[in-house]
Design goal:
Its main location: membrane. It comes from Halomonas flagellata. It holds the Pfam family SSF. Keywords: Membrane, Symport, Transmembrane, Transmembrane helix, Transport. It is found in: Membrane. The chain has 486 residues and is mainly alpha-helical. The chain is built from 23 helices and no strands. Helix 3 packs across helix 10 and helix 9 crosses helix 18. The chain is globular and about 70 Å long. It starts with a helix and ends in a 15-residue tail after the last helix.
């Protein structure tokens, strides 16, 4: 049996096992809207930990993070910097969001926004921005799966087919089981990918350099620019710092984060998760080691695509057996699929609940809403798959782009949770101006000072909100001023 067939066999067996676990998780609650979306609102600490952790341990972690360490060096540590701020978000926002969701029946971020500001259009705007940010993130997972299959099987499974296989498995169990399927598959896949990450992160430097310490010693002697800021490719402190800020504040606005808050059995469980959440940042460290390991190996012939550094080291340099390569591929696919399941589920719920609900599906029954959500999982996953076939240049840049758009929701959400005097007209205009400004700076104009465009856009957003609050007289009965939020 050829090495490629062994790798494919191990991986297909793994995909079949994940599909079985995901479909077995289907229960009676999965047929109701609250059960399909929020798992009946009784998800405990362990499952919450793995569901929330799946947002970090994605194709971005196995491909993008090593790729940035290989390409830039020390600037890759921006990932650890912003992840250290995520527990603050979970601690501060999670219990409050969960409590409001349980009391008022919220299932999406848009539900909370529309109710607080008494404005369905504002809820729709929140949903549109959320879906627009989620689709690129989902594209990362599908593109990552395709790259993994193609490289690990030496082309036996081409990019398009590998991405399609992962897309079909995820779509099938999310379609059938909703959050219950996501929770149990993420538990299985979380254990798998953590074990693989640490194995590869320690074994590759050991085989190539004699250990992690010796690897960094050789880097310091031969290519020290990779170990200091601004790194090998001149990333400025301005971009590094603003990327951390945009990722931290934008990360707090992900729609799937809010939906997981709603699913928690209590605010106490969320605070427990926030305490242990930094473990996921710690588990990214071995994957960064892999990126640094590739710097000297490919110094004379740089890789055409930095995201493939892990695959090239495992396949071409470190001389692993096909059995190990099969397990590596399975672990990396676990990362891509666990996050992809979360994203496909959330994007479908947000699209149907926040965008279609007030318009083309106004007055639809719960059964029709659940059915539309299931089919939207397939539709949005297919769109992301088609985007993935366009072969995006950088998984990290795709993610940073999504954060830049999503952070424009920050004033809206913070107003709904903590500042009830913010008016709906102010936050809506701010979000629109910030979103348009970000898209222009990202695709048309260069961002001033070389900073992340999301920072300039959110500053403009906040200025517009403040100006509206100060200089525009409120309507006599602005519902947001009479908010029920305590």
């Amino acid at each position: 049996m050829s090495d490629s067939l062994i790798v494919v066999g191990i991986t297909l067996a793994y995909l079949a096992a994940v599909l079985w676990v995901g479909l077995r998780a289907r229960n009676q609650e999965s047929s109701s809207l609250e059960g399909y979306v929020a798992g009946g609102r009784h998800v405990g600490v362990v499952i919450l930990f793995f569901i929330l952790g799946a947002e970090i341990f994605s194709a971005f972690a196995f491909l993008g993070a090593p790729g940035w360490a290989y390409q830039h060096g020390s600037p890759a540590f921006y990932i650890l910097a912003y992840l250290s701020l995520v527990p603050i978000t979970i601690w501060a926002l999670g219990p409050r969001v969960a409590k409001q969701g349980r009391e008022r029946g919220y299932l999406t971020q848009g539900d909370m926004i529309a109710d607080h500001y008494q404005s369905r259009p504002l809820g729709m705007l929140t949903g549109i921005i959320g879906v627009a940010a989620l689709v690129p993130y989902l594209t990362i997972q599908i593109a990552g799966a395709g790259l993994l299959f193609q490289a690990a099987t030496d082309g036996l499974v081409p990019f398009w087919l590998g991405a399609l296989l992962a897309f079909l498995v995820v779509a099938a169990y999310v379609f059938a089981s909703g959050l219950s399927g996501i929770g149990w598959t993420n538990l299985v896949q979380g254990i798998m990918m953590i074990a693989i990450a640490w194995f590869l992160g320690l074994t590759i430097p050991e085989r190539l350099y004699g250990g992690v310490g010796e690897m960094f010693t050789q880097l310091q002697q031969s290519m020290p620019e990779y170990l200091t800021m601004p790194g090998a490719n001149g990333m400025s402190w301005g971009y590094f710092s603003t990327a951390v800020l945009v990722s931290a504040f934008g990360g707090a606005m992900w729609p799937h984060l809010f939906m997981k808050f709603y699913s928690a059995d209590s605010g106490k469980s969320l605070r427990k998760v926030s305490v242990f959440y930094p473990l996921y940042a710690y588990l990214l460290v071995p994957l960064l080691f892999i990126g640094f390991a590739g710097i000297l190996v490919f110094a004379e012939e740089p890789l055409a695509r930095a995201d493939t550094v892990l695959l090239r080291l495992v396949m071409d340099v470190a001389n692993f057996s096909p059995w190990v390569i099969g397990l590596m591929l399975s672990g990396a696919l676990a990362a891509a699929m666990s996050t992809g399941a979360n994203l496909a589920h959330t994007a479908a719920v947000v699209l149907v609940r926040d965008v279609f609900g007030p318009t083309v599906m106004k007055g639809a029954s719960e059964k029709a809403t659940v059915s539309a959500t299931r089919w939207s999982v397939l539709g949005l996953s297919l769109i992301a798959y088609l985007f993935a076939l366009a072969n995006p240049a950088s998984l990290v840049m795709l993610l940073l782009g999504a954060y830049g758009l999503l952070v424009q929701l920050f004033p809206i959400v913070i107003g709904a949770l903590f500042f009830p005097r913010l008016r709906r007209a102010s936050v809506m205009l701010g979000a629109l101006v910030g979103s348009v400004a970000y898209l222009l700076m990202d695709f048309v104009w260069a961002s001033p000072l070389g900073w992340h465009a999301g920072v300039w856009a959110i500053l403009l957003n906040v200025i517009v909100v403040a100006a509206c609050q100060c200089f525009i007289q409120p309507a006599s009965q602005d519902p947001a001023l009479a908010s029920r939020h305590s």
